[in-house]
User: Fold these one by one.
Assistant:
Number 1:
Amino acid sequence: MGKRKKSSRKPAPKRKADPLDTTFTCLFCHHDQSVTVKLDRKEGVAQLVCKVCGQSFQSKVNHLTEPIDIYSEWLDAADYAAKEEERRALRRPVASSSRARPTGPPSIGSEED
Ligand SMILES: [Zn+2]
């Protein structure tokens, strides 16, 4: 009666004790594992926060939402915000003239009559 060694049998990867808490790399401060995503399925909300730089993000969750979904939503939102800012900056004419820019219509109903 010999014991057969099954070398193919691997122990299942252990999940962390806290499946609802997942950490990610921060998009802003780039610290590893500084971003925590908490899913509150009862309330249907997710809270993402970076413990290093304090960036935070909230989103809705459903029964299929995973922390990584919230994280990628955050990335999208941040990306969108960054692009919006860029767009806004581009839209603004770069008036590098030394003269002050023209100030609206001249003299609107002067106080002195
Ligand atoms: Zn951060």
Number 2:
Amino acid sequence: MSRSDGVVRVETFAYRGKTYEAPVFDTEAPVVLTARPNDIARPLPAESPVVRCLHSIWNLAEFEVPRSPVSLGALTADEIAVFATQDAVRVLDMPIKMPDCAEYRVPRALAQFAGALQRIIDVEHRVNPHHADYHAYLTVDQRWVAPGTLHREAPCHVDGFQGARWSPKCRTNHTYTVSDLLPTAYYVQPFDFRALDERLHDYFWEMNAQVADTNEAHRWQPCPAEITMMDCYCVHRGVENDGTKPVFRTWMRLSFEERRRVFDRLGNAHNPLFEYEWPMVDRDIEQLHLRAFRESSDASLRVFPWQDLDGTPLPPGTPKTKPRLRT
Ligand SMILES: [Fe+2]
């Protein structure tokens, strides 16, 4: 498959120094998936906090309960070979399922991900009786990762954090991810945010700080190609390529978000297989002008990756700033 197969063009959006590329897909020969929940051999463990919190309302106190993602098992070698086919187009948070619609509609340019998606949605419809209330947003990112760098540089964070913008709070999200190598690191430890103010403080920087407090002692990683389900309380971060050669990594995420959670950020891909028109807005965490709760902590723990330790934007092409999570 070549990149042009099903991709009409790639649009570029830039704001606050960052660039986003969004492919425009055609509608020919789509891949349409429906769940087969009865094909699941065993249900997910009910005792997992991730499973327990599914379809619940966002509650900051849940960060105090350590939690690891739930495993769905790994892709087989044959499945990995298809999943990791080169020249996949990158997409960010594109809806492939809408509320009140049971179909997952995938442009054919992303057909290589159908096998992994089928495994995920079979589990989703088994574990979540409220699936009709949810969107499913697909993100795909594939590229070479140079030694000493990360595929997707970020602080410790969660997907689906509900800050001050979300009032009243929505239901929690849950997210399935899989990558063929460099599996994400999770921090299975309690996090305490009781002293923070969501209007003032950057919670991700405080996650950095609390992970650094423990010297990364509670870091946990799934196996390569293992599909996992996490929720919005699973603190995580990508891992560096600590080898000596570049590696080619394919990473996929499917996020389930309740019907109020419309992902209208400029740069997210549009799915032409659904009829919807969302006014897209430029939005990122930087515009909130949040500050670190611990203003005297190690500077690397409280800057964005694109900033140096003083907060100055790094020149293009320079290595990103990484949080020092271990002494
Ligand atoms: Fe993430």
Number 3:
Amino acid sequence: MLPPGLPPFRMAPRGLLLGLLMASCFTVCLSHQSLGFALTNPEKSSTKEAEKKEAIAEEELESEVLEVFDPTHEWQALHPGQAVPAGSHVRLNLQTGAREVKLQSDDQFRNNLKGLKKGRRLNINTNTYTSQDLKSALAKFKEGADMESFKEDKERQAKVKQLFRPIEELKKDFAELNVVIETDMQIMVRLINKFNSSSSSLEEKIAALFDLEYYVHQMDNAQDLLSFGGLQVVINGLNSTEPLVKEYAAFVLGAAFSSNPKVQVEAIEGGALQKLLVILATEQPLAAKKKVLFALCSLLRHFPYAQQQFLKLGGLQVLRSLVQDKGTDVLAVRVVTLLYDLVTEKMFAEEEAELTRDMSPQKLQQYRQVHLLPSLQEQGWCEITARLLALPEHDAREKVLQTLGALLATCRDRYRQDLQLSQTLSSLQAEYQALAALELQEGEEDGYFRELLGSITSLLKELR
Ligand SMILES: *[C@@H]1O[C@H](CO)[C@@H](O)[C@H](O)[C@H]1NC(C)=O
Ligand SMILES: *[C@@H]1O[C@H](CO)[C@@H](O)[C@H](O)[C@H]1NC(C)=O
């Protein structure tokens, strides 16, 4: 998916960083020169220059004569530049930020000493901390405050903001600890700055968005993106004159909106819906439109207020012209799937409200104000959907059949009068009878074609 000419930034640094973070731990390590390097400069580590530096750091480490610390059974502060015999226990004192060392067990220690005498490299057995531990620990000694209650989301965002502001100071703290790690938040800030900077090249901007997309899949990260204005920067990216920037901004937004109500709300307030619709309504490369349509789906799903706005802004007309464009069958199928999702979502919401009475009255009220089916009927979607049944691919037809079914209550009269539709359905029925028979011969009782045949037959029955 990476456009040609872009360096493959993503895999190497991500693999490296992930390897370290996914184990959800970071290591307080004396060889901070090499480890710190890997953690702070994930992007550069794929470049030759970085490899060279790393190699140099390794060499320096090999030749460096370390002063060896003599641990006891008590925790003692470790000073920069001191080495610890293998097997010692090392911890980061989260109150003071000092690294502390004590003896782990005599036997182990002696064994390790033997190792030392044989001239082996130090093998430092260290405690591990999650990056989350570190984040809150640092926040603690920045603020001297209790950061336990991250629970209230508002509060959390405010704290994240505080975390964000003194980021240069945080980095200094990290440096003083000889511990260098980039939190997801720092990475996102860096990527947003890269993208937002007028001195970044187009390729750098796209690469930044591409990397950012990975982070915002996590709900917390997507919400953190809000806290420092990063989401708005990406939304504004939809205004770019570069189709690639539009495309990758939409790629990030689609991931950030997905099942994330807070982000969805902010995006609506930030004008994302209008911008997405403008892109869909104007001449743009297919790839950009695909990602924008995906972002639109994520923004609308489970968010009746956005659905209302979508209808008000003429979203259905925009989708209609998209479907009627030549050569965009892929988009047409996605549009129909989106409509199917919206129709069924509203239906289920209303059913669920009746059955369980769990849903908040406001939410139900909002769903009730989404006048989707009447708008679909007025704007000719009964016919548009029926025409799409002529698409050649089975899965496209499957989606269209689903949608025809969902629109049945609204469109029944139109369908009945639609001769072309009944002809298409009849010829599809014949086609899938044959295919289902073959399927059955191959021993598949509940095959795919049989299922399609079932949908067609029941539609024909309904329309009789
Ligand atoms: C993005 O850049 C603009 C203009 O250079 C600046 O005003 C804005 O604060 C930047 N936003 C972020 C989140 O860095
Ligand atoms: C983005 O473009 C829309 C029109 O498409 C315009 O109304 C809006 O002011 C622009 N926003 C920014 C931040 O440039």
